[in-house]
């Protein structure tokens, strides 16, 4: 099979932090197999996982075979890299469920079903570690790696000497051996010669290459990507609500889209290379367009569109754009009524609400009462009348006068009515039984 230059593709995108010598030559010779490990301790990946996912996706697009390893065994231990405490340990049933959820999310980026030689494969290290007895492991694996070698790893040194930590358990100390054995197992059973991951994984990955050299009698390669940061110093992948997840139930497509849309100019230029499959010419043209008119936010819009479409599909992207336009663009009452309840509440998160009995709305509620007495949106009936006279009141994005009555026809998803004074002053009526 003809392969493309994978390392060159990653290089211009800014996606290489470190690699072992001759990795380029090795990959350019023929189709190779590589793997990336994913933590299965949640039923969804988050955007912090997107860089290693993109590594595998570009690897497959370059004609190589990607393996996505779910760390069922290592998930029961906890990886010390970049952490100050141990993670919670999970049972097998939960891990299997999480694995299937992760597979579905990865299938948006990787082809698991093409039948081609480079079809993606998902494996779980619990499948080969569960029958391994402790005595077998320390005899067959542990004796090949010295304590001095393991202690020299930054991930170990930082945990042992770092301030404010309780040290490191033996369980976590053995993590690099287990991950190293994964690489050896995949090398021997799947001819997997490359492991990739974030730069914080370099120590664990090179332990694997050492086991391949000492036990497998072969050569393994390592490639890591930079850990993504934001230009303002805040943590990438976090929003006010915590992690930005790939699962729509945890982070709605609208909020997901908004996260990328709100990226700074500096970060957008970096992220569009890392998180999209757009080619170099397209990205260069977008960067030039953005430089000419930064206020139009061409980079942010394209970045948000591409990532949201890949993760959530074209239909959910269109819904996210429509929802965004309700606040920031021209939209109609019909656009508003097209929102599902979850997206409606996402769009108007933080907007004050008042409950009104649905029977009052069904009997048609006078607009002045809806604005003042029933909701407290405006302080008095007099203020409501003045606002209506000024033509500054809208119901569900449509201007109304003092004869308007709020009725069943105005309910969004049978539950909400959006009141608005001026451009940015919103209030929600929530119909209750």
Please, could you describe this protein's structure?
Strand 2 (33-38), helix 3 (50-61) and strand 3 form a beta-alpha-beta unit. Helix 12 (253-261) runs antiparallel to helix 15 and helix 15 (298-312) crosses helix 16 (314-328). The radius of gyration is 27 Å and the shape is elongated. The chain is of the alpha/beta class. It has helices at 6-12, 23-29, 50-61, 92-106, 126-129, 134-140, 147-151, 154-161, 170-173, 175-190, 202-216, 253-261, 265-274, 280-292, 298-312, 314-328, 333-337, 341-347, 358-362, 367-371, 381-389; strands at 18-19, 33-38, 65-70, 121-124, 192-198, 221-225, 238-239, 242-243, 353-357, 365-366, 393-395, 398-399, 405-406, 416-421, 425-432. The model has no long low-confidence stretch (mean pLDDT 90). The relative contact order is 0.09. 45% of the residues lie in helices and 14% in strands. It has a six-stranded mixed β-sheet, with helices on both faces. It has a five-stranded mixed β-sheet with strand order 9-15-14-11-12. Strands 7-8 form a two-stranded antiparallel sheet.
Write the topology of this structure.
Elements: H1 6-12, E1 18-19, H2 23-29, E2 33-38, H3 50-61, E3 65-70, H4 92-106, E4 121-124, H5 126-129, H6 134-140, H7 147-151, H8 154-161, H9 170-173, H10 175-190, E5 192-198, H11 202-216, E6 221-225, E7 238-239, E8 242-243, H12 253-261, H13 265-274, H14 280-292, H15 298-312, H16 314-328, H17 333-337, H18 341-347, E9 353-357, H19 358-362, E10 365-366, H20 367-371, H21 381-389, E11 393-395, E12 398-399, E13 405-406, E14 416-421, E15 425-432
Parallel strand pairs: 2-3, 2-5, 3-4, 5-6, 9-15
Antiparallel strand pairs: 1-6, 7-8, 10-13, 11-12, 11-14, 14-15
Helix pairs in contact: 10-11, 12-15, 12-16, 13-15, 15-16
């Amino acid at each position: 099979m003809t392969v493309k230059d994978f390392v060159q593709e990653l290089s211009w995108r800014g996606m290489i932090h470190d690699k072992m010598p001759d990795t380029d030559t090795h990959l350019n010779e023929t189709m190779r197999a590589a793997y990336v490990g994913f933590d299965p301790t949640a039923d969804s990946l988050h955007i912090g996982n997107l860089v290693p996912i993109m590594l595998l996706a570009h690897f497959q697009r370059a004609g190589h075979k990607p393996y996505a390893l779910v760390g069922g065994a290592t998930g029961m231990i906890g990886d010390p890299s970049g952490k100050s405490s141990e993670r919670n340990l999970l049972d097998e049933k939960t891990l299997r469920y999480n694995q299937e959820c992760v597979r579905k999310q990865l299938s948006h980026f990787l082809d698991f079903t093409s039948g081609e030689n480079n079809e993606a494969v998902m494996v779980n290290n619990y499948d080969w570690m569960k029958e391994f007895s402790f005595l077998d492991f320390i005899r067959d694996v542990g004796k090949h790696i010295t304590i001095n070698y393991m202690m020299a790893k930054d991930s170990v040194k930082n945990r042992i000497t770092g301030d404010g930590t309780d040290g490191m358990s033996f369980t976590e100390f053995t993590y690099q051996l287990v991950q190293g054995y994964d690489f050896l197992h995949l090398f021997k059973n799947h001819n997997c010669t490359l492991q990739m991951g974030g730069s914080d994984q370099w120590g664990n990955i090179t332990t694997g290459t050492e086991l391949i050299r000492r036990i497998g009698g072969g050569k393994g390669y390592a490639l890591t990507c930079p850990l993504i940061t934001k230009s303002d110093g805040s943590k990438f992948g976090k929003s006010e609500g915590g992690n930005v997840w790939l699962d729509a139930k945890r982070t709605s497509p609208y909020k997901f889209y908004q996260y990328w849309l709100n990226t700074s100019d500096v970060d957008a230029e970096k992220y569009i290379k890392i998180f999209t499959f757009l080619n170099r010419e397209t990205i260069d043209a977008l960067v030039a367009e953005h430089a000419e008119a930064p206020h139009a936010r061409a980079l942010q819009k394209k970045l948000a569109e591409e990532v949201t479409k890949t993760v959530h599909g074209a239909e959910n992207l269109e819904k996210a754009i429509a929802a965004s336009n309700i606040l920031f663009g021209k939209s109609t009452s019909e656009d508003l009524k097209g929102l599902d309840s979850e997206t409606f509440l996402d769009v108007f998160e933080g907007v004050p609400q008042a409950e009104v009995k649905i029977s009052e709305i069904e009997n048609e509620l006078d607009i002045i009462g809806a604005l003042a007495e029933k909701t407290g949106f405006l302080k008095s009936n007099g203020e409501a009348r003045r606002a209506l006279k000024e033509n500054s009141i809208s119901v569900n994005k449509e201007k109304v006068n003092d004869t308007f009555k709020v009725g069943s026809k105005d309910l969004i998803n049978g539950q909400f009515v959006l009141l608005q004074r001026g451009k940015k002053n919103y209030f929600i009526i929530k119909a209750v039984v």
